[in-house]
Design a protein that fits this description.
It is built from three helices and eleven strands, in the order αββββββαβββββα. With 194 residues, it is an alpha+beta fold. The protein folds into two domains: 46 residues; 139 residues, Immunoglobulin-like (Sandwich), CATH 2.60.40.10. A five-stranded antiparallel beta sheet has the order 5-4-7-8-11, with no helix packed on it. Strands 1, 2, 3 and 6 form a four-stranded antiparallel beta sheet that branches.
């Protein structure tokens, strides 16, 4: 009888030990999974990311020029920065008055800025007018993170409010309800920014 009790106790001890080992192994796997997920999340927050820290500079003389100063606020540098810009009348009719692409060869480190200047000839915008309609300015930028070896894109939608009574108006970000109309216009014009 004692041998049977000892065998039962050993059997139960083995079962408890196996269960405990299984629980510890599962806990270790979950810990590794959560650590890897947190690490990947942290990588994405360190990626390069561009913002406009300053309002665009608009100059209207013989030609119309927009200067946009993009600043990399991410932790990682950006490389192979390219942009595509489209400028068109707020009425969303007619062809764009400007559609251009440009690229920057050098890396842009954290907190560094890069300027994008768009020049629109006076005959396109009729710069000698007293009043100029508002225009949308859409800028799509593409760049890569050399550390993560990933590519990223951003699209910035702005509206230059033109000239009213010979006074230069402000440039602002578009409202949510305008974005859908702009995307529809670009699609009809056969322009794909991404």
């Amino acid at each position: 009888m004692q041998k049977t009790n000892k065998k039962n106790i050993l059997g139960w001890t083995n079962i408890i030990a196996t269960l405990a080992t299984t629980v510890l192994a599962l806990t270790a796997l979950i810990t590794v999974y959560l650590t890897v997920a947190a690490w990947k999340g942290q990588q994405d927050t360190a990626r390069p990311y561009f913002i406009l820290k300053e309002s665009p500079i608009v100059d209207l003389s013989d030609d119309l020029s927009f200067e946009l100063k993009f600043t990399n606020v991410g932790m990682h540098p950006a490389k192979d920065l390219s942009s595509e810009t489209v400028v068109f009348d707020e009425g969303l009719t007619g062809k764009p008055i400007h559609h251009d692409e440009s690229a920057i060869v050098n890396e842009i480190p954290k907190d560094a800025s890069s300027s994008l200047v768009m020049t629109i000839p006076g005959e396109e915008i009729y710069s000698n007018q007293l009043d100029i309609n508002a225009h949308y300015v859409v800028v799509a930028i593409h760049y890569a993170d050399p550390i993560l070896d990933k590519a990223y894109s951003q699209t910035i939608y702005m509206k230059w409010n033109g000239v009213q009574e010979e006074k230069m108006q402000t440039t602002e970000h578009v409202r949510v309800e305008e974005k859908g109309k702009i995307d529809e216009y670009l699609e009809k014009a056969g322009i794909s920014l991404i």
